[in-house]
Specification:
The complex is a heterodimer of chains A (115) and B (111). With 115 residues, chain A is an all-beta fold. Chain A contains no helices and eleven strands. The model of chain B has no long low-confidence stretch (mean pLDDT 93). Classes of the chains: A mainly beta (115), B mainly beta (111). The interface between A and B is medium-sized, with 23 and 21 residues.
Chain lengths: 115, 111
C-alpha cells in the first residue's frame, strides 16, 4: 500500500522557537494532505487541509498564523509550529490519500514537546 | 458537530471471543467508511473499509457491517487476540474526499 512518511517522530523545543514537521508521500502524488492533532485520550482533530500550490484550508479555531502549512510539491507538505508554547505540546499526524486507493494513509506522527 | 460518533470509549474482551466496535454517523452522503487501528505514539493504520453500496465486507478476522438505514456500522474481530489491543477509529469519507473521524474506542483483549 501507499506510504506516508512523517519526520521527525519526536522533537523537543524551547518556548518561543519554531518547529517544522515534514510529511511526504513516498510512492504517490498527493494534491491534498491533512494535518491532525491528537491530545491524550482524545480523537484526531483535523487542523487543516493542505492543498498543493495553494493556501491551506484551516478548521475553525485553528490559528493559521501559528500553524503554517506549506504544500510546495505533490509529495511534500510541511507544518511549522511558530512561537511554540507548552500548550502546543501534542501528537501531530499527517495523512494523504493516494488517488488510486480508497483509504487515506497516515504518517507515523510527531510527538512535540515544548519546554 | 461530530458527524461520526463512537459512543464506547473503551471495550474489554477475552482472548478468543468476538470484539464488536460500533460507530454511528449523521451524514447520509458519506460514500466510504473505514476503520483504522492506532497504537500509542504511532499514526493510525488502515484496517478495513466498506463502500456505502455494500452492507458487509470481510477480511480475515475482521468484518465490517454497514446499516445505512440506521446510519450505523460496526467492526467485528473474531477471534480477538491480545495484539488487537489498540484504539480503533471509525472514519467516513464524503464526496469531497474529506475524512471524518470518530472519537475512538480503546480495545483491550485480555489473555
Amino acid at each position: 500500500g501507499a506510504v506516508v512518511s512523517q519526520h521527525p517522530s519526536r522533537v523537543i523545543c524551547k518556548s518561543g522557537t519554531s518547529v517544522k514537521i515534514e510529511c511526504r508521500s513516498l510512492d504517490f502524488q498527493a494534491t491534498t494532505m491533512f494535518w491532525y492533532r491528537q491530545f491524550p485520550k482524545q480523537s484526531l482533530m483535523l487542523m487543516a487541509t493542505s492543498n498543493e500550490g495553494s493556501k491551506a484550508t484551516y478548521e475553525q479555531g485553528v490559528e493559521k498564523d501559528k500553524f503554517l502549512i506549506n504544500h510546495a510539491s505533490l509529495t511534500l507538505s510541511t507544518l511549522t509550529v511558530t512561537s511554540a508554547h507548552p500548550e502546543d505540546s501534542s501528537f501531530y499526524i499527517c495523512s494523504a490519500r493516494d488517488p488510486r486507493e480508497t483509504e487515506a494513509f497516515f504518517g507515523q506522527g510527531t510527538r512535540l514537546t515544548v519546554v | 458537530d461530530q458527524q461520526v460518533k463512537q459512543n464506547s470509549p473503551s471495550l474489554s474482551v477475552q482472548e478468543g471471543r468476538i470484539s464488536i466496535l460500533n460507530c454511528d454517523y449523521t451524514n447520509s452522503m458519506f460514500d466510504y467508511f473505514l476503520w483504522y487501528k492506532k497504537y500509542p505514539a504511532e499514526g493510525p493504520t488502515f484496517l478495513i473499509s466498506i463502500s456505502s453500496i455494500k452492507d458487509k465486507n470481510e477480511d480475515g478476522r475482521f468484518t465490517v457491517f454497514l446499516n445505512k438505514s440506521a446510519k450505523h456500522l460496526s467492526l467485528h474481530i473474531v477471534p480477538s487476540q491480545p495484539g488487537d489491543s489498540a484504539v480503533y477509529f471509525c472514519a467516513a469519507r464524503d464526496t469531497g474526499n474529506q475524512f471524518y473521524f470518530g472519537t475512538g474506542t480503546s480495545l483491550t483483549v485480555i489473555p
